[in-house]
Write a structure and sequence with these properties.
By secondary structure, the protein is mainly beta. The protein has 2 domains: 91 residues, OB fold (Dihydrolipoamide Acetyltransferase, E2P), CATH 2.40.50; 84 residues, OB fold (Dihydrolipoamide Acetyltransferase, E2P) (Beta Barrel). Helix content is 11%, strand content 38%. The protein has 3 helices and 10 strands, in the order H-E-E-E-E-E-H-E-E-E-E-E-H. It has a 5-stranded mixed beta barrel. A 5-stranded mixed beta barrel has the order 6-7-8-10-9. The chain is elongated, with a radius of gyration of 22 Å. The protein starts with 9 loop residues before the first helix and ends with a helix.
Length: 190
């Protein structure tokens, strides 16, 4: 789409310029795509090209990792979103659905101190370790060096997806949105 300035669509441009970061906007999901969701805003004009003047990227739909937009919303669903910015290139309001919902990682960090023992299933193996679900919507990484007392080359040498394991929380890093876990420290005598 070619860039559209204020002269090509003055009503839409004026509406988008009038919005303030943090403002709550309401509308209906107009279309779900692999890259995000278009929202037809209640108070906004129609978009000349897209199904809605509001747009939510996949990461802004949910605090937890999702596979597709349809994991969170459906076409026609009413939503309230926080306005993030005016995308002048696409002439759309960038929105966040997750900004209006509690952050499960923050809640987890508030109630979970380093050193706490937790149980959960192994959800995924990666070359550098294994992910374990330690709370609803919260997965942490057990790095290779934290899988066992002796050096480990591959996580599948120690665990498999679906195994229920005990882990110790090493760190909850809110800015980087990471939870570091240890399997070896959970098996060490107290």
């Amino acid at each position: 789409m070619a860039a559209m300035g204020p002269q090509e669509n003055p009503e839409l441009w004026a509406f988008l310029e009038s919005l303030s970061r943090g403002e709550i906007l309401r509308g209906a999901v107009a279309a779900t795509e692999r890259f995000g969701v278009f929202v037809a805003l209640d108070d906004g004009p129609a978009h000349p090209v897209f199904p809605g003047v509001g747009f939510i990227t996949i990461p802004e739909l949910s605090w937890i990792r999702i596979e597709a937009a349809t994991d969170v919303v459906a076409v026609g669903q009413r939503v309230a979103c926080e306005f993030l910015q005016f995308d002048t290139r696409n002439l759309e309001a960038r929105l966040s659905l997750r900004a209006l919902r509690p952050d499960p990682l923050r809640e987890f960090a508030d109630r979970t101190a380093a050193g706490r023992r937790l149980r959960g299933p192994v959800t995924k193996l990666v070359p550098f370790g294994a992910f374990v679900r330690v709370a609803d919507g919260i997965e942490g990484l057990v790095h290779l060096r934290e899988l066992a007392e002796t050096p480990v080359d591959k996580p599948e040498d120690v665990v498999a997806v679906g195994d229920e394991v005990s882990v110790v929380v090493l760190e909850v890093d809110l800015p980087r949105r990471r939870v570091a876990l240890s399997l070896r420290r959970a098996s060490a005598p107290r």
